[in-house]
Predict the structure.
Amino acid sequence: MKSYYGTLAVFLLMVLCCAGSGFAAEPGREKLVLDLKECIGRAIAVAPELGEAQADVELTASKLEEAKSHRYPQIEILGLTGPIPQARGDQVSSPDKINQTDRWTWFERGDATLIQPLYTFGKISESMKAAGHGIEVDLAKKEQRRNEVALKVKEYYYGLLLARELKELVLEVQEDLAEAREKAVKLLDEGSPNVEELDIYKLDAFAGEVGKYLEEARKGEALALTALRSRLGLPPDAELDIATERLLPGEEKVGELSAYLETAQSRRPEYRQIREGLRARGALVEAARAAWYPDFFVAGYLSGANAEKRDKVVNPWVPDDYNHLWGGVALGLKWRIDFGITGAKVAGERAQYNRLLSTKEYAEANIPLQIRKYYLDCREAEKSAEKTRDGYSSAKKWAVAAIANFDFGIGPAKEIFDALQQYAKMRAAYFQSIYNFKVAQANLAYATGGEPL
């Protein structure tokens, strides 16, 4: 029995250390009583991990909007103003020189350029495709984080129930010992030959050990409740309790392994991440390859400038950059040719794609293995619960008979110790099996991508 409580204390301490450290203020001091579904819903609502995941989704969505915006015209406007030498005359003759410095005036100039892409060989469309699939990847990651939060809450919730069941078990054993001691003292006072003072010492020693287990169980209960409170985003002093009173086997049955494996293919977030990630990476490879080809576009240009003390020249062969108004529209081609830069970028994107292919192979090999493990854990815990239930039932009958024999003065005190110890051991193993079954079911639901609620 000592090993069960030692294991429980270590487990609950680890649970507490892994719990989230952020606490949200909760108004009032009214006690919260939540069932498992409500605990999961509240934990998901306040989980900082989901806030991070949502930020990733929004970041990728902004990249998609950026890629889409490259389909539309881009306008560049430049404005200038400054001093300029005065100029009189026309294109034939002028009394002024180009580098004179004794007469000045001010000019204002504005230039506007419009570029409308027509065809880019996939630079825009493939970037849009990559960002779109990237959003699906981030949404799947968010779903994975959500399932992880739900799994943790289930572990804390069932851990609290286990701690309380073990505490009640210790209290039951403690009560039986107290009754046995009271009757032993009575028999000793009556001079019964079947009771010695040594039996009182044995009962007291065993009661001391049971008292130690009781304190460990109480500590385990407090740690489990603190871990659950932290995961729900509640302050340390918030009044919280769970609606479930007993750790019971429930009516859930384990299905066929093949059904779980098939379900995981369509619902497991990691599978969706890989599928969408490969599509995104493939699009990025094509976008990088598109840099080898030119961009076709239509361009528009408008320029105007004015200087008060400069005469206008209307000869089209002699433009004046400081006194004019002109514009035009044209089809254009822009082709950037490099020697190795684009090829290196394409190779880099292809390497990322191949890396994800290896991740896909790893997932396809190990996710089914994980599902099989949790499936076998469920089967083992289910059968263990049945066996230990019969075991503790028999041990309880043994303990009742041993105490009754001791009451009548025909049984030794040692028989009480052995019976109660075996009863406590089997009863604790029974609750541990139920807990293992619940957690294995939660792990199996997580491994197959089941809904957290």
The first helix runs from residue 2 to 18.
